[in-house]
Specification:
Layout: H1 3-20, H2 54-66, H3 68-71, H4 97-106, H5 126-142
């Protein structure tokens, strides 16, 4: 088995376990499942970095085109729609970069939040997700999430 295949299997196993575990983080989540994508108020205040790397700038464009409709401007989440990605739940030690790729490709069963399941995202490539992750990680660092 190749190094990347083994990594993908390990990440998938970790994510699968997380599907059934809500942990203490669930107490931060809204109490009802909402399937609507009609838009809601930002869930967190996001401090923007002074500058973005070249990859993060590309990721910002892709995020705005494919992710912001649910996860809100600057990944601040939308109340009643989808969670903020600028949140401790998505810090790299808990949700590594590969988790974002798998989520975009396969969708995710609800496990930390009660917004319902996230569907797979049509029309994004692995390269797009890599740039989106660069953008999200730079937003996270600017907000003290390492």
């Amino acid at each position: 088995m190749g190094r990347y295949t083994l990594l993908a299997v390990a990440v998938a196993a970790i994510i699968s376990v997380g599907f059934w575990w809500t942990g203490d983080d669930a107490t931060d989540a809204p109490s009802e499942i909402v399937q609507s994508r009609s838009g809601g108020a930002a869930m967190v205040q996001v401090v923007l970095p002074e500058t973005l790397s070249a990859n993060a700038k590309i990721g910002q464009v892709a995020f705005e085109a494919k992710c912001a409709v649910c996860h809100g401007a600057n990944a601040a989440g939308q109340d009643g729609v989808a969670p903020p990605l600028v949140h401790k739940i998505y810090e790299p030690s808990h949700h590594g970069d590969a988790a974002f790729l798998l989520a975009a490709k396969n969708g995710v069963r609800a496990h930390h939040w009660r917004f319902g399941n996230m569907p797979a995202v049509d029309g994004v490539t692995d390269g797009d997700v890599k740039m989106i992750v660069a953008y999200v990680r730079e937003l996270q660092r600017a907000n003290g999430i390492e």
